[in-house]
Amino acid sequence: MTKPFVLGLTGSIGMGKSTTAQMFADMGIPVWDADATVHDLYTGDTPAVRQIADMIPTAVANQTVNRETLKNFIAKDQSILQKLESIVQPLIAQSRANFIANATSDIVIIDHPLLLESRSDAYCDAILVVTVDPETQRNRVLSRGTMDQATLDIILAKQMPDAEKRKRADFIVETTTLDAARAQVQTVIKQIREQRDA
To answer: Has this prediction a pTM greater than 0.85?
Structure first.
């Protein structure tokens, strides 16, 4: 089996990234999820949990990392973030490499919200950015009831602007409606397969 085509999928909060990733999965394309990987690393008797427990004992309970506690420590001391990344990033990279190496599909998706910010696009053959207009984005996030406008603004300030992401994209999927997004996903898969067969 030749190496699969690695498509990096990203998009800012509220753009429909998770929904789009699920559409690829529904069409038989395997998806590696960065957020789910971190969740797995933070739960159970894992190297990450053991090392974080050594660094900040109060951030771990019942072999699970408490992300809120961790966030509070990072807010007080930025050096903790660098130490945390030195623990977690190699484990994430290993998980991603294993996923690609063991893939039996001709295309795989790397679903990573900070794909471009973390320079993880270096591992990808192409980049797909999921986007929608700012008003729809804001309405989606605020309608979840999990954060207010101020918190959303803080998150958006940390993420690369959508316009910059789109400039770097090889493919763009606009998630104005589910049907439109699904049709665009099908087109992306078709184009990648045509490129590979050319």
So the answer is: yes
